[in-house]
């Protein structure tokens, strides 16, 4: 018996018996009101929020907040992209992407995280490579905590990500730098359909 086989056989002998997984107790609905908590935490993370009453108002918000943007990617029906993504492109092709406008699926009040489904984007790098990011979300899609959010996300095994605030780091001399690794700003447009 080789040394390797000897070590592996000892590991197998010392392996504990399988035990059933503990029951996961999900929190009940959050007592925190989702809407005010979401807005408060979003502002604490450096984000900004605008409430509108129809998705058609998104264009006005973009012009007001990001009138300088020329290279725009959008997966929102309310706004057209100004860039054309070839079938085969690399993240380097997006280095001049001024603004990305994407739709969120679920937003969480306790940490201002917004779930974005990866297959809704032309490329999963888009929310992280754009200079500025807008996420639109329905007001009804804001829940109190992460447990509620996971109940609303369909388990399709597709890539998805929770995004909370613009990119930031305080690694260097403990100075907060916004936009170091990704978007310099995050604007959340909450659509309150009437």
Provide an overview of this structure:
It is a single chain. With 194 residues, this protein is of the alpha/beta class. It has one domain: NagB/RpiA/CoA transferase-like (Rossmann fold, 3-Layer(aba) Sandwich), CATH 3.40.50.10420. It contains five helices and eleven strands, in the order H-H-E-H-E-E-E-E-H-E-E-H-E-E-E-E. The strands form three sheets. A five-stranded parallel beta sheet has the order 1-11-6-3-2, sandwiched between helices. A four-stranded mixed beta sheet has the order 7-4-5-8.
Write the layout of secondary structure elements.
Elements lengths: L2 H12 L19 H11 L3 E5 L5 H9 L5 E3 L24 E5 L2 E3 L5 E4 L8 H4 L2 E7 L3 E2 L2 H7 L7 E4 L4 E2 L7 E2 L6 E7 L3
Parallel strand pairs: 1-11, 2-3, 3-6, 4-7, 6-11
Antiparallel strand pairs: 4-5, 5-8, 9-10
Cα shape = globular
Taking Cα atoms only, what radius of gyration do you get, to the nearest Å?
Answer: 21 Å
Low-confidence stretches: none
Helix content: 10-25%
CATH class, anyone? Alpha Beta
The average pLDDT score comes to 84
Q: What structural class is derived from the secondary structure elements?
A: alpha/beta
Q: Beta fraction of the residues? A: 15-25%
């Amino acid at each position: 018996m080789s040394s390797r086989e000897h070590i592996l056989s000892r590991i197998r002998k010392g392996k504990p018996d399988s035990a059933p997984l503990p029951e996961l107790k999900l929190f009940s609905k959050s007592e925190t009101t989702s809407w005010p908590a979401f807005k408060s935490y979003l502002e604490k993370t450096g984000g900004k929020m605008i409430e509108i009453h129809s998705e058609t108002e998104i264009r006005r918000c973009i012009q007001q907040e990001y009138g300088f943007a020329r290279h725009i990617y959008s997966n929102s029906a309310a706004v057209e992209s100004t860039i054309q993504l070839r079938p085969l492109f690399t993240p380097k092709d997006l280095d001049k992407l001024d603004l990305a406008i994407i739709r969120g699926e679920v937003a969480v009040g306790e940490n201002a995280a917004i779930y974005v489904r990866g297959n809704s984007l032309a490329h999963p790098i888009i929310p992280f490579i754009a200079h500025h990011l807008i996420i639109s979300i329905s007001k009804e899609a804001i829940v109190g905590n992460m447990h509620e959010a996971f109940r609303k996300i369909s388990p399709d095994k597709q890539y998805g990500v929770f995004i909370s605030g613009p990119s930031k780091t305080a690694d260097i001399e403990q100075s907060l730098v916004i936009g170091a690794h990704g978007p310099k700003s995050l604007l959340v447009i909450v659509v309150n359909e009437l």
